[in-house]
Each structure stands twice: as structure tokens, then as C-alpha cells.
Specification:
3 domains, single chain, two-stranded antiparallel ribbon, 3% strand
């Protein structure tokens, strides 16, 4: 793979604009190359046979020629004469106070020098952009590291209070002074006895919280020195000088363990550094867990309990939150390290291309300045990464390095062959079952049987539920495929745990597996005639649709780690938040799922039909009275508006919390849709009513126009007149603009699929239930198209704000004012 493609593939998607514009610099180099070809075209040479050929531009052999030349060209690094150097790179202070590089091109008098001058100016702009972004991000992580330091201080103190509730901060100043003087004396004697030993620098950021006294840390340091080559007798002698004691020869021979035994008297009152327990006076535990109870308390202005409760339960919650914070922080550090490495590599590659095209030696001097700059020489990120790793391993994995790193840096999810194999197997079974179903219907002439009408009224609504679910999963799998292709960071947008996001193969596997169960159930119950003796259908086969639904629900709520448990539980959590919409803080995944449910109105009605059909007990003889039952008709209205009500309540919650007027307008859109669905349902029940006909037309037209405008302008960010891409956005992921216009037109057409309900379209060769299913499927397809462009717009908003990390709530809240006073 060429470096340009590798460079693009390794970018952090949300930081694309902050990376060096490698492709643009390549175009500038191509212009320089074309100019040189025009002004100095390759010469033609004639061999002994009279044939002419061009001098090759590749694999040129120049070693012998350079050896024989009397005035060889010298690299700027070896020639002190400034006139022989093509560039001069200086560090300058910008008007905004930032330092950057400024390259002076010294060969402007050469032919085509103006092209090279433009190249170096753009190169400097790119470098200054990169270094400014990098410095800003490093400052952010250093501030975050300081915050995590305080959180760790509070955690250690909290642990001690949980382990020993009666533990108090030592009151004896003399005892503290004595311990401090012992440590100071030990350090001084160590420095005096080992002049070659460097004094360790004080680590101010992400310093690992030591629970042992300083002498133990010194022993660890001396152990490291001994591993580097120091003789054992010198090491033991240093320990003797530190502690001013005579050690028993047997204990000395036992190495560190013997030394630890001799140090026990010094640590008799506690072998731990006194924990800063007074820090607990300045902190409270953040109530980060969102529950319906906390929401109600917030509405009623009931103050939350701020008193610290030193219990195991609270300690586990605090540790779990800090674990998540450390994992996210380490991920941020690794991305910053990758950002620095990739950009330095890009500058090196582009300068080598420049040298090759112009036959100059500018890359060495330029890269020397790059490596000496903040981007190349700064070690803050690497040091903090080491401290984060050491802290996490010690305090969250019981010093088990392998376990700690597996949590801190989980391995990337690999594609498994068994997933591909299973996907192919179930896809083949699905195609086979569909073929068998078509053959059976035609061979047995089931469409002309007397029981065909009753089958379509009762059984078809049951099986159409499976079609809706499978179609929606197919659309979601297609969304994932194209999100990945166009580098939309959907796991970050949805908030999936690292490594738990499903790929399109996994989603298709689940979809085809469910389709196989549904089709097998249909084939087993493809019976149009009842038993003439009993007047009933076979009870076992009539229960098959219900069995498939129950099996699917059991798999979804299964607590065992099978069939993508993390994804199932994530779905259940979002669904529960949708049900309790106003009582939970609304995340993107929550309202995204609620939007999906608004396109599954017919599926909700199928579920309601399941309850009525099997609850009444008339399934054995396919009783179709549910469609005419008054209670069922009432629920027919209610079920249709449930998803829209959930979405409306989410908008109201966001309006109150975020004080965003657009959320109020969004809620008004869903309210208009509720009115439209209700009026259309009422009209479908009373076809002869002119009043309901007019009301349904008006309400549906307003809701469709409102929803279409919201989709195209606000959710997709399109229809912008002043955009550089006319009627689209300034930034687009898909290079073919016609796809955006096609999607907009299709969205408008599918938005008005409700016309079938009002105008009562009838197709001679389609049953009414079949037509309802087709219209509902078109809405699901519209939603699938909406999904891609909705997340594309969200991703581009993140890119514009360089938002690549999710905010992780911290367990402790510091009272800064009290902290300063203390």
C-alpha cells in the first residue's frame, strides 16, 4: 500500500483536518516536476545501432558519474557555506504568540524557483497547523492528567477508610517529623555513597500513587540498578548505609526479602505512606448514575445526599468509574502519539519526494528542525502513557500486568472465519426456503384455496412482523458497510464499548438466522384448510409463529455471554430509556433507536395482534375477530402513536435540560405526526366520513412537509444555498453528488407513502394485507437511507469540532474553594 493511502487509513477520523495535507503537497510537487520536464525534457540518445531512446527516469545509475566528477554536490549538512544550501529553516514567533517554522528558499533565482517557493510556504503552513493542534491537545491531556491525579488521591483515601473506618490521620507531629527525617537522611546517604546515581526527577503529572513509604521505593530503585550491572555486595553495602544498621549475613544473602524483613521495625505503625485523608473533606461523590428517581428528585429540587458513605458498594462504583476514565484517557494518549508519529512520517516522505524531483538535498535540514520541534522532541505524552499504565496495573489489576493491559488496551476485534461461514450457510438456507415456499404455493395452488382469505387476515399479519425486523436489520447492515467504507466513526457516535461494535457481517448473520426460523415456521404452517372432523387447524403448527417470537425474546434477554451479549444489552438499555423517555438523560443512541421505532408502526400493530390472537385462544381455528374487536381497535390507535410519543418526550427532556429551542420545534414535528397518524387511522375505520377525510389529508400533509424539511435541512444538513457544493454541504463524504440528490428525492417520495392510506389505493393482484406490508417496508427502507446521512452529518460535526473522545464522568467532585483555603 502506498504511503498516501496508509496515511489516510491511519488518521483519527475526527482529526482529518488537523493532519498534514499530504495529497495537496503532492500536487504541488507534481507541478514542479511537470515544469522541469517542460523546461528540460529528457534527452534522446543514440546507440551504436542507430536506435533512439529516452533516458529512463527510473532506476538511474549515477554512482560512477558522481565519483568521476570533479565538483561533487555536497549535502547542506556537510557544507557550512549557506549559499550551497537550498533552504534555511528558522523558528519564528507568530502574531498569535505561537512559535512555528519558517523556511527561506534560497534558490529562487533558479528556473522554476517560484514553484518551489510556493511549495515551502504551504509546507510551513501545514507544519505550523499540525504543531499548533498537537500542542493544544497535549495541554488538554496534561490538565486531564492533573484531574486524574486528584481523583486517584481521593480513591486511595477512600479505600483506606473503607478497609479501616476507624483509621485517623496521625496527630503526632513528632512522629511525622521523625519519619520525614528518616527518609531525608536515607536519601542523602544514598546520594553521598553513590555519586554515579542520578537523583530522580520529581514527577508532577500522573505520578503513581505510592501506598508504601519512600524507603520501599528506594529499594525498588536500587534493585533496578543492581539489574543493570551493579555488584551485589555494593548494593547491600548501600542498604546498610541507608538504614545505619548491621545486617545478619544470612538475611543479606537472601537478597531483597531479607532487607524487607529488616525494614519492618521502621514501618511498625503502618507500612504505608500516610494517606492524605483530609482530602476527603473537600470531595463529594458525583451522582453520575441516571435513574428515574434522580430525574424526579431533580424536577422537585430535592437535594441529593452529599455525605460520603464509606461502603464496599460505593468503593466498587468509584473504582469502576475511574477504570473507564483511565481507559478512555489512555486511548486519547495513544491517538496523540499516533498523530505525532504519522505527521512526522508524512513530512519525511514528502521531503524525500521533493529531493527526488528537484535533485536537491533539503530533506535533511528540514527534518532536523522538525525533529527538534515540539512535535518531534516533546516526551510528555510518552511519559504520561507510562505513568498511566503503571498506575492502572498497580491500582486496578492488583499488579497483574497482563490483566491490566488487557483492560487498558483491549485487542482489536478480528474477523472470524466461522462468522463468514455461518453467514453463508444461513444465507443459503434462506434462499432455499424462499424458493421452496414459492414452489409450494404454485404447485399446491394455495392462492386459489377457500381458506386463503382467512390465512391472509390472520396468519399473514403474524409473519409480516418477521419481514419488518429482517428488513430493518438488512438496512442496518448496509448502513454499517457504508459507514465503514466512508470512515464514519459510528462506534464512537453511538457510544459502543471499544471492540464491541458489530460489523455488517455479524448483523447479516443475525438477520439471516432469524429469517431461517421465520421461513421454516411458514413452511411448517402453510396450510389453508382446516381438519373437516375437528373444525380446527393443527395446534402445534399454529403456535409456531408465537414460538419464534418467544425464542427471539429469550435470546435477547439471555444473560449468558453468547450471541453478542454486549450488543444485546446495549439495545435493551436504549429500549428501556425509550420507554421511560422523560426520566433518563437523552443520548444519541437513545433517540436514534426511538427514530427507528417510529418507522416500525406496523410492527407494533403486529405485536398487538399477537397478544389478541393468542390471548383470546382462538388461534386453533384462526379466529379473525381481533380485527373487529372494539378493544383491539382502541389499541390499534394507541400502539401506532407510542413510538412518536416516546420521541416527543425525549425532545421535551432535551428542551428543558439544554435550553435549545430547536428541540421544541423537533417535538412539534413529532406531535404533528401523532395527529396525522391518529386521523389517518380514524379515517381508515370510517371510510364514509368526509370530515375525517379532510382532516386526515390536512394533518398528514403538514406532518409530511414538516418531516421532509427536517430530514433534509437539519438531520442531513443539506439544501444549503451558499455551500460550495450547490444545495448540499461544504463537506461531503460521498464523492458522487448525484447520490445526495437521489436520496433527497427518494426521501420525499417515500415520505408521502401515507397517500395509500388516505386515497385507499387498491391493486387487483395484491391482497390488502400485502399492500399494507409493502407500504410499511417502504418506510423502513426510507429510514435506512436516512440513517446513513444522519450519521454522516453527525460525524462531520464531530470532525469540525475535532471531537474524537467521549466524556467519561468522574466519581469525585472537588470543592476547589475549600481546597485553596486549606
Amino acid at each position: 500500500m502506498k504511503f498516501g493511502k496508509e496515511f489516510t487509513s491511519q488518521m483519527v477520523p475526527e482529526w482529518q483536518g488537523a493532519y498534514m495535507d499530504y495529497e495537496y503537497l503532492k500536487t504541488l510537487l507534481k507541478e514542479i516536476h511537470l515544469f522541469k520536464l517542460k523546461t528540460k525534457p529528457p534527452q534522446l540518445t543514440t546507440n551504436s545501432h542507430g536506435l533512439t531512446r529516452r533516458l529512463t527516469l527510473y532506476r538511474a545509475f549515477s554512482g560512477l558519474t558522481q565519483r568521476n566528477t570533479t565538483t561533487p554536490r555536497v549535502s547542506p549538512s556537510t557544507n557550512p557555506d549557506i549559499e550551497s544550501q537550498p533552504i534555511l529553516v528558522n523558528s519564528v514567533k507568530k502574531p498569535d504568540g505561537e512559535f512555528g517554522l519558517e523556511t527561506m528558499f534560497l534558490m529562487t533565482s533558479d528556473e522554476g524557483g517560484e514553484y518551489e517557493l510556493v511549495y515551502f510556504r504551504r509546507l510551513d503552513d501545514e507544519f505550523n497547523k499540525v504543531i499548533k493542534f498537537y500542542r493544544g491537545k497535549v495541554d488538554e491531556v496534561m490538565k486531564e492528567a492533573a484531574v486524574l491525579n486528584k481523583q486517584m488521591d481521593a480513591l486511595i483515601a477512600f479505600r483506606i477508610k473503607v478497609d479501616d473506618p476507624h483509621y485517623e490521620w496521625p496527630d503526632s507531629a513528632k512522629e511525622m517529623t521523625r519519619l520525614a527525617s528518616d527518609v531525608a537522611a536515607s536519601t542523602a546517604s544514598l546520594a553521598a555513597s553513590t555519586p554515579g546515581l542520578k537523583a530522580s526527577k520529581r514527577v508532577t503529572v500522573m505520578d503513581m500513587i505510592e501506598e508504601e513509604i519512600s524507603l520501599e521505593a528506594q529499594l525498588d530503585e536500587l534493585s533496578a540498578d543492581r539489574e543493570k550491572g551493579k555488584r551485589e555486595d555494593e548494593f547491600i553495602q548501600e542498604l546498610k548505609e541507608i538504614n545505619s544498621k548491621n545486617y545478619d549475613d544470612k538475611k543479606v544473602d537472601s537478597g531483597n526479602r531479607g532487607v524487607q524483613e529488616e525494614l519492618k521495625p521502621l514501618n511498625s505503625k503502618r507500612a504505608k505512606r500516610p494517606a492524605p485523608l483530609e482530602i476527603l473533606n473537600h470531595v463529594i461523590i458525583n451522582n453520575t448514575l441516571e435513574t428515574p428517581r434522580s430525574s424526579i428528585r431533580g424536577i422537585l429540587n430535592v437535594p441529593n445526599q452529599a455525605e460520603l458513605k464509606f461502603s464496599k458498594e460505593n468503593l466498587n462504583k468509584v473504582e469502576e468509574q475511574l477504570k473507564c476514565a483511565f481507559v478512555e484517557f489512555d486511548h486519547k494518549l495513544r491517538l496523540l502519539k499516533s498523530y505525532s508519529f504519522l505527521n512526522i512520517m508524512a513530512f519525511s516522505k514528502i521531503m524525500k519526494k521533493y529531493d527526488k524531483i528537484t535533485s536537491r538535498y533539503a530533506s535533511k535540514s528540514y527534518m532536523k528542525m522538525v525533529e527538534n520541534s515540539y512535535l518531534g522532541s516533546s516526551e510528555e505524552v510518552v511519559k504520561v502513557m507510562d505513568r498511566v499504565e503503571a498506575t492502572f496495573i498497580k491500582h486496578f489489576s492488583n499488579s497483574n500486568r497482563k490483566k491490566g493491559l488487557s483492560i487498558l488496551r483491549p485487542k482489536a476485534k478480528r474477523e472470524r472465519h466461522r462468522v463468514t461461514f455461518s453467514l453463508g450457510f444461513f444465507a443459503g438456507c434462506t434462499i432455499t426456503f424462499i424458493f421452496a415456499l414459492v414452489v409450494l404455493i404454485h404447485a399446491r395452488r394455495l392462492l386459489k384455496k377457500e381458506g386463503q382469505e382467512q390465512y391472509m387476515v390472520t396468519m399473514f399479519p403474524l409473519y409480516s412482523l418477521f419481514a419488518f425486523i429482517v428488513l430493518h436489520m438488512f438496512m442496518y447492515a448496509a448502513n454499517i458497510y457504508f459507514w465503514r467504507r466512508y470512515r464514519v466513526n459510528y462506534p464512537f457516535i453511538f457510544g459502543f464499548k471499544e471492540g464491541s461494535a458489530l460489523g455488517y457481517r455479524e448483523v447479516l448473520l443475525v438477520a439471516f438466522g432469524f429469517a431461517v426460523l421465520a421461513l421454516a415456521s411458514i413452511l411448517a404452517n402453510l396450510d389453508m384448510e382446516m381438519d373437516p372432523k375437528t373444525g380446527d387447524y393443527q395446534r402445534f403448527t399454529e403456535l409456531l409463529p408465537l414460538g419464534v417470537v418467544v425464542l427471539a425474546l429469550v435470546i435477547i434477554v439471555c444473560p449468558f455471554n453468547i450471541i453478542f451479549r454486549s450488543s444485546r444489552f446495549f439495545l435493551l438499555t436504549c429500549a428501556f430509556h425509550c420507554i421511560c423517555a422523560p426520566l433518563y438523560k437523552v443520548a444519541l443512541a437513545d433517540f436514534f433507536l426511538a427514530d427507528q421505532l417510529t418507522s416500525q408502526v406496523q410492527a407494533f400493530r403486529s405485536v398487538e395482534f399477537y397478544i389478541c390472537y393468542y390471548g383470546s385462544g382462538g388461534y386453533a381455528h384462526r379466529d379473525s375477530s381481533c380485527s373487529s374487536n372494539d378493544m383491539n381497535r382502541t389499541f390499534h390507535y394507541i400502539v401506532a402513536i407510542i413510538p412518536y410519543c416516546s420521541r416527543l418526550l425525549q425532545c421535551l427532556r432535551r428542551l428543558v435540560e439544554e435550553k435549545d429551542g430547536m428541540q421544541g420545534l423537533n417535538g412539534l414535528k413529532y406531535f404533528a405526526t401523532i395527529v396525522a397518524v391518529t386521523t389517518r387511522t380514524m379515517y381508515s375505520r370510517s371510510r364514509d366520513s368526509t370530515e375525517w377525510y379532510i382532516i386526515a389529508w390536512a394533518a398528514s400533509g403538514v406532518a409530511a412537509a414538516f418531516g421532509t424539511y427536517w430530514d433534509l435541512v437539519l438531520d442531513w444538513g443539506l439544501l444549503q444555498r451558499n455551500s460550495k457544493n450547490r444545495w448540499l454541504r461544504d463537506k461531503l463524504l460521498i464523492p458522487h453528488h448525484s447520490l445526495y440528490f437521489g436520496a433527497m428525492i427518494l426521501n420525499v417520495l417515500l415520505r408521502f407513502a401515507w397517500l395509500q392510506t388516505v386515497l385507499d389505493f387498491q391493486v387487483s393482484f395484491l391482497h390488502k394485507q400485502t399492500l399494507i406490508t409493502i407500504v410499511a417496508s417502504l418506510e423502513i427502507i426510507r429510514r435506512g437511507i436516512w440513517n446513513f446521512f444522519r450519521l454522516e452529518n453527525e460525524h462531520l460535526n464531530n470532525v469540525g469540532k475535532y471531537r474524537a473522545f467521549k466524556s467519561v464522568p468522574l466519581p469525585f467532585h472537588y470543592d476547589e474553594d475549600e481546597d485553596k483555603e486549606g
